[in-house]
Amino acid sequence: MLGKSVPVFCYHAVCEEDGHSPAAFASHLDMMQEMGFKTISAGHLYEICMGRKPIDDKYVVLTFDDCHISNWVNVVPMLEERGMTGVFFAVSDFIGSGEVRSRADVKEILPMRESFKRALSEDDNSQFMNEAELRSLVHDKGMEVYAHTCRHQGCFKNLRFKGNFAESSHWSTWGVYRKFNSELPTYDYGSAFAYNGFWPQFRKGKVSFKRRSDDERRKFIRDDFKRSLDKIKKINGSRRQFFCWPWGDFDALSMQEASAAGFSGTFTLERSANMLGTDPMRINRIGVGTSKDAGWIKKRLLMYSYEAPAMVCFKFFTKRNDIGKVLYITDTDKLSGGSRQLANSAKAMLQAGLGVVAVLKPGALLIPVLEEMGVEVIQLDDFKNMLAAAGFLATVIEEQQVDVVHTYHNRAVKIGCLAKGLSLLGGRRFKLFFNRGVIYKPNPLAPLFSLIGNGYICNSAKSRHVLLKHGVLPKRAQVVYNSFVGGGRKPKRSAETTIIYVGNGGHAKGADVYLKSVERLLAQDECNGVRFIAVGLKDISLYKDVVSGATLERVESPGFIPHDEVTALLAGSHIYVMSSRQESMPNTLLEAFDAGLAAICTNAGGTGELIRDGINGFLCDVEDSDALAAAMKRLVDDAELRSEMGRLNRRIVRTFMSSAAKTDSLLAVYSSLPGDEPQIELPDIDALINK
Predict the structure, then answer these.
(1) Do residues 174 and 269 lie in contact, with contact meaning Cβ atoms separated by under 8 Å?
(2) Cβ(503)–Cβ(511) under 8 Å?
(3) How many CB atoms lie within 10 A of CB 682?
């Protein structure tokens, strides 16, 4: 004989205004009685789960979340008429004062969504049952009232963008922001009891988001449970208290707090059998949608009133798309441009309240940089033995409970893909992204890598275009611009008008093109009071066959110098020149922008995505040293123009390439799902310029 189970149904508002008609609800109740089911209390169900009472009849539990006024005027009379009972879960901050109302006293009934909006933003609780009505439920009508938190608090569980705040936004948004503002962004919502969430931080008229820590969420839950439980106890006077999770969401942390608060049982929206041995802290419920008819109720009663089908037709709650910890991995031991972006990304994530782990080679120059920030660095000796390295990475991911892995440089891509497979075999799931900051032809396996992982994160639209050209699917390539964390100090310019190049001697960087342009300029003008600098060249004398000795004598070449010395030189300069033949989005361009320099660049790679020719700099054709020289001449002669360009560039980088901007962009990508549209929108530089 099949073991019995007790179905538990979950209702919300029951009114025409909310789409769940009283007539349909009445047909549900009639079907239950026609099939011989009797309603029992939460206390009775608890005794069954604990083995103190048998399931000796056909039992069903009816629960009603939120205590909307429609429950009082529509549901309660129908239950009383049929001799049935219900379990009501009240949001304690929405419990107002006043007398018991009749149907005639309720002038309007609003949909649940509008009722929540008013309660959260205007403290208008008129659409919820008041204290007198809840007391009457318990003491006059023999029903039960328990806690459903203080404010049914929601949060942004990730930064997956859902559009700007609008009247159509989910009602929980009014509980996050409190006040309506159409310029504020909204993201995926979830329960603030189950998710740490990303919370708005307002500073100087701008909003950023920070993830709440486990300790902060724990404190929030404890405070909420105490306040809501104290209020509900005064209403129900019950020795045993039950609780209903908002949206049915919970996790180990919140469940621990529910037990510590003294709840005997909690109601979820998981689906399975309720019987002897069921954990009363995880009572299963069946959500009843507004379109469900009596036939649907009949099928669910048959399905969930017996142990076997109830357990076969299970549904367990799993926290999804919850980003709490990020791991960065690279095999380089140098402080390259990619390494600096890894450090900037790590800093952005730390500022957003996430945990950050990095896997690096022993002796890597990034180690002290990241450790000073507070990143946990784990060293991997051998990146060349990829299978062993992948096993090591998979172990770190499991032990550290990593949610996102972000690789830098080629070897880490392959190790990440192998670790993904190993982790899936072990049951650990994580997202895997590959950084892409170049525009040369990718590895032929790039399309496959992008499908094994979650895709590429490119630092320019041009870099993304190259990947698409070589077979990577559009939804597997997203754009997140590099960031630059400036010192915030006002630059101190050199007395001489200073023109600076920062790069290296590689062909792609075009140091020879820069030197040729200097020579072209000197052929037109002696440039007295003008200083020329070329940073990053091993030996400038190697260019004696490219330009004259006289030109080389005019160019200062400090060679390879520490990064802080590079930024100091930029801060003392006036004009930045990027003469590259091939480029994506060089860090030095952002550093020059932050230093307030006018920029002269070849139109290589993604440079044109940040420069508007003649507005905040000049764009020249690749290899066109004459055009570069003409632009230098223009800016040498026009101090006002170069100052205005420098001011615009500083605004651009501090608006679109700040650490806060990178946090939002990077977390939006980390939070994205495979079916989402890729993040490819370019910075709206034109709007900023025209302000």
Answers:
(1) no
(2) yes
(3) 14
How far does Cα 152 stand from its chain's mean position? 21
Q: How far apart are CA 92 and CA 315, in angstroms?
A: 29
Q: Is 287 helix (H, G, I), strand (E, B) or coil?
A: strand
Query: How would you classify the pairing of strands 477-479 and 456-458?
Result: parallel
Q: What is the pLDDT of residues 540-556, one digit of tens each?
A: 999 999 999 999 999 99
Identity at 113, one-letter amino acid code: R
Classify residue 73 by its DSSP letter. Answer: I
- Give DSSP secondary structure letters for 457-501: EESSHHHHHHHHHTT--GGGEEE---------PPP---SSEEEEE
- Residue 418's closest CA among 390, 398, 385? 390
CA atoms of 420 and 452, how far apart (whole Å): 8
For residue 327, list its beta bridge partners: 357, 405
Q: What tens digit of pLDDT does each residue of 462-503 get?
A: 999 999 999 999 999 999 999 876 655 566 787 889 999 999
Q: Judge contact between 108 and 168, C-beta under 8 A.
A: no
Q: Please state whether beta strands 144-147 and 59-66 pair in parallel, antiparallel, or not at all (unpaired).
A: unpaired
Answer for the pair 342, 373: CB distance below 8 angstroms, yes or no: no
Give the residue from 282, 275, 293, 285 showing the smallest Cα distance to 259: 282
* Cα four-point dihedral sign 360, 396, 679, 472: positive
Q: Quote the pLDDT of residue 484.
A: 78
Closest to 570 in 3D by CA, of 617, 535, 616, 600: 535
d(Cα 15, Cα 22) in Å, to the nearest integer?
6
Residue 1 pLDDT more than 50?
no
